């Protein structure tokens, strides 16, 4: 752990073990010690739908995400500051991460527009023109008080091509300096920069170089998980992990699917977030080692097994597939129960990644994982390519 | 099942209902469920935060199709299906979460229920398929319940049918070690009530469920109807009623000698964003205290607060200071207000937890008052505190909503 820039950090990151590019680490944050690789469930409005903080602790969640855009609207940044921050408001004792609000704005507000100043949009409350600047985003996040805060970046859709991508990358660099200048709590909250550059390796390389220069506590790989080809996705992740400092956490935003998390971890990433597990749970889909179990399927009506016989979560211990089949999408609790299990699954996945790397059996874990997900050996080509770069032998999983 | 009566106070009685190792202290509140689940509280939360929730009421009507009796039976019954081994499960036909059937649509083939797949007519055979698969600890036979205002002829028919179906249910009962409540009907007709009670009492049942209440009877009539029914029931057998949900109705039922109640009152408050705040004991105890002089003078409704109201936006107090429930120990009015505002289900979970905890505590206070032979005094004290504001407790009219908001504002101003 290098000694540079300790004054601007509120975390410690210790790599405990490696396997080629993958690492198992300990991330010490103001509110909690987190083991990586780690998946962060998304608690958009200061809550993970239907789940109490006690249940989140039971599930082994160590860090969860809040959305700045939503929280600034309701309950409002000033109220949160008055109450003492989001931790106190939610009564969540462990770690929190907030995003910058920019992504939500661009995706939720169809009249949002990005200028050099910031993101202009119409207030969803009364339509008045508003502006979210890097300074404001950081100020709001300072009031919310999360352990990790994200810089406001100029994010473009992954499917965008042309000069807009380059413009966004350069602007992201200019904005990181404004974010750093505006950050009023560097010893309590860690500001992460976000690497942009679309799917262009040159742009990504430039962005990486400039952001690393700023010597931030951690870095995120942004602008992915937006519908791009998986083959492009993993290459950009690999390029970014290679270009980011060894001794700082790396966060791939918007990831997601268990398979993607395993691949990204093999390539050297540490942190992930996505609404997928909780959202798909609300629609009655359960995450199991074999893939996705659709509880609405007619075959579930007579299946008396638990969702996942190997899972030790409350839902798998108490309820059968046949019972859950009768309540998913029909009763409020039905959706909540499947989401609960899905979080348990993601926590177990995170723990398995961490411990298998720590105990020197990461390749074996990856092989088991792939064999369960692809029993017929039809492992996708992009995964095979990525694992080659990660130097993990998965030949026995592929037909 | 064993039922032991222990103390009496005026017409009320306190006792112990025992199912093997599980014990329920009566008078007792049964928690209503949909398909065996409370509306917003998962069973793990029940264990941690509501140790009092000894008994759940389930409706066999929820187990006719989805899940069907065959699946329930294949798992080994409702206790296994839902991992409820440490809870008492009571099967009552009335669907507390369903729409109110207008009650006149029963036929000679069965009682009518509104389900998500439309109106179903359920006869004893279908009913007992569900009961036999579910294997509840205690269950009531299938009644032909009709509203109080039905004709005498209809009430007569209802009594006859209910007795016939009772006999059918007993014949079809496949499990010999569970216990049966015979349902007594008769509406607002005292003669029919007597007839139903006497005839039911002659059957081989472990207790009685008083049917047809909470279906449109005039409140002033209710006490007389309860009394006239119970007069013909044996003292030593347990008595249950559905539909007496509000606190004053519960007190009325307890005074008449009823032991088991199921109530949707906590849930109905939750669904409107309200939390119970009424004091639970006559003297200051555990942080609760009777009305102060100012509060008496201000003439306020202190029975509940409206968490939707913006007065709670920054309120970092719990719903009730001193309340030991999970929601009050861990969270604030401000947080619950926010959750309601952004339509998050956790709001209903936290409110349900508090409202049930509060209502269970109310029942405990009732039992304590009986044990101290002070039930009458407790009831009078409680009733003197309740403010009826033009149907405020029905929470139906906008006027009373406005009035409640205004009173909450005054409440807030006085407390700050």
UniProtKB/TrEMBL annotation, chain A:
Cofactor(s) of this protein: Zn(2+)
Annotated SUPFAM superfamilies: tRNA-guanine transglycosylase
Pfam families per UniProt: TGT
Positions annotated to bind substrate: 99-103, 153, 196, 223
Gene Ontology BP annotations: tRNA modification
Record GO cellular component, one term: cytoplasm
One function term, GO molecular function aspect: tRNA-guanosine(34) queuine transglycosylase activity
EC number of this enzyme: 2.4.2.64
Region described as RNA binding: 254-260, 278-282
UniProt-annotated binding residues for Zn(2+): 311, 313, 316, 341
Recorded catalytic activity of this chain's protein: guanosine(34) in tRNA + queuine = queuosine(34) in tRNA + guanine
Assembly and interaction partners: Heterodimer of a catalytic subunit and an accessory subunit.
Family membership: Belongs to the queuine tRNA-ribosyltransferase family.
Descriptive protein name: Queuine tRNA-ribosyltransferase catalytic subunit 1
From TrEMBL, chain B:
Organism: Marchantia polymorpha (Common liverwort)
Subunit-level organization: Heterodimer of a catalytic subunit and an accessory subunit.
Record Pfam families: TGT
Protein name: Queuine tRNA-ribosyltransferase accessory subunit 2
InterPro entries: QTRTD1, Queuine_tRNA-ribosyltrfase, TGT-like_sf, tRNA_ribo_trans-like
Keywords: Cytoplasm, Metal-binding, tRNA processing, Zinc
Any single GO BP term: tRNA modification
Record-stated family: Belongs to the queuine tRNA-ribosyltransferase family. QTRT2 subfamily.
Record lineage: Eukaryota, Viridiplantae, Streptophyta, Embryophyta, Marchantiophyta
């Amino acid at each position: 752990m290098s000694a540079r820039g300790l004054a601007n950090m509120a975390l410690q990151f210790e790599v405990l073990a490696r396997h080629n590019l993958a690492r198992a680490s300990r991330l010490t944050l103001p509110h909690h010690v987190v083991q990586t690789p780690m998946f962060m469930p998304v608690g958009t409005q200061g809550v993970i739908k239907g789940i109490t903080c006690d249940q989140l602790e039971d599930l082994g969640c160590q860090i969860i995400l809040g959305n700045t855009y939503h929280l600034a609207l309701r309950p409002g940044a000033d109220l949160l500051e008055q109450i003492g921050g989001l931790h106190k408001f939610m009564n969540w004792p462990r770690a929190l991460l907030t995003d910058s609000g920019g992504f939500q704005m661009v995706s939720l507000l169809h009249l949002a527009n990005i200028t050099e100043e910031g993101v202009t949009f119409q207030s969803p409350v009364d339509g008045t023109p508003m502006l979210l600047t890097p300074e404001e985003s950081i100020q709001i996040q300072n009031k919310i008080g999360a352990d990790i805060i994200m810089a406001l970046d100029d994010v473009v859709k992954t499917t965008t091509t042309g000069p807009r991508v380059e413009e966004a990358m350069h602007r992201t660099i200019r904005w990181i300096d404004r974010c750093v200048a505006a950050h009023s709590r560097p010893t309590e909250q860690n500001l992460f920069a976000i690497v942009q550059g679309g799917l262009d390796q040159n742009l990504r390389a430039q962005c990486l170089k400039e952001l690393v220069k700023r010597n931030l506590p951690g870095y995120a790989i942004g602008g992915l998980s937006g519908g791009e080809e998986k083959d492009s996705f993993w290459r950009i992740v690999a390029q970014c992990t290679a270009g980011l400092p060894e001794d700082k956490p790396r966060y791939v935003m918007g990831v997601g699917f268990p398979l993607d998390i395993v691949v990204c971890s093999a390539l050297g990433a540490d942190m992930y977030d996505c609404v997928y597990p909780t959202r798909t749970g609300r629609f009655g889909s359960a995450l199991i080692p074999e893939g996705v179990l659709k509880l609405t399927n007619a075959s579930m009506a007579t299946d008396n097994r638990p969702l996942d016989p190997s899972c030790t979560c409350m839902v798998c211990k108490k309820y059968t597939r046949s019972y859950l089949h009768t309540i998913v999408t029909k009763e409020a609790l039905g959706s909540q129960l499947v989401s609960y299990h899905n979080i348990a699954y993601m926590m177990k996945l995170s723990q398995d990644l961490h411990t298998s790397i720590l105990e020197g059996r990461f390749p074996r874990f990856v092989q088991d994982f792939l064999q369960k997900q692809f029993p017929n050996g039809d492992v996708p080509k992009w995964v095979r390519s990525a694992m080659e770069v990660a130097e993990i032998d998965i030949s026995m999983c592929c037909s | 099942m064993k039922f032991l009566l222990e103390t009496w106070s005026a017409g009320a009685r306190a006792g112990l209902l025992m199912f093997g190792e599980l014990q329920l202290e009566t008078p007792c509140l049964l928690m209503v469920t949909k398909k065996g689940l409370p509306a917003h509280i998962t069973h793990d939360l029940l264990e941690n935060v509501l140790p009092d929730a000894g008994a759940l009421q389930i409706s066999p009507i929820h187990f006719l199709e989805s899940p069907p009796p065959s699946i329930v039976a294949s798992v080994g019954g409702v206790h296994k299906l839902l991992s409820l081994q440490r809870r008492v499960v009571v099967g009552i036909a009335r669907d507390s979460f369903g729409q109110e059937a207008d009650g006149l649509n029963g036929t000679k083939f069965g009682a009518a229920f509104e389900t998500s797949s439309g109106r179903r007519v359920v006869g004893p055979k279908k009913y007992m398929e569900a009961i036999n698969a579910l294997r509840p600890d205690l269950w009531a036979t299938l009644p032909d319940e009709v509203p109080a205002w039905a004709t005498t002829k209809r009430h007569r028919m209802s009594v006859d049918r209910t007795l016939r179906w009772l006999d059918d249910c007993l014949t079809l009962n496949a499990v010999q070690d569970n216990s049966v409540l015979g349902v007594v009907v008769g509406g607002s007709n005292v003669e029919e009530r007597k007839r139903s009670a006497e005839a039911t009492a002659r059957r081989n049942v472990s207790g009685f469920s008083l049917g047809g209440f909470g279906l449109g009877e005039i409140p002033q009539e209710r006490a007389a109807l309860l009394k006239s029914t119970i007069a013909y029931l044996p003292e030593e057998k347990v008595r249950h009623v559905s539909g007496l949900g509000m606190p004053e109705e519960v007190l009325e039922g307890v005074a008449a000698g009823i032991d088991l109640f199921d109530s949707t009152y906590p849930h109905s408050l939750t669904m409107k964003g309200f939390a119970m705040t009424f004091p639970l004991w006559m003297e200051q105890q555990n942080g609760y205290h009777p009305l102060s002089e100012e509060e008496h003078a201000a003439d306020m409704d202190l029975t509940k607060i409206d968490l939707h109201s913006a007065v709670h936006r920054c309120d970092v107090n719990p719903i009730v200071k001193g309340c030991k429930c999970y929601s009050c120990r861990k969270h604030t009015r401000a947080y619950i207000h926010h959750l309601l505002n952004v339509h998050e289900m956790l709001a209903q979970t936290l409110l349900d937890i508090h409202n049930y905890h509060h209502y269970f505590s109310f029942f405990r206070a009732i039992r304590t008052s009986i044990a101290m032979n002070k039930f009458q005094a407790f009831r009078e004290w409680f009733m003197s505190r309740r403010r009826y504001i033009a149907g405020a407790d029905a929470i139906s009219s906008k006027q009373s909503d406005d009035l409640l908001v205004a009173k909450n504002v005054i409440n807030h101003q006085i407390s700050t």
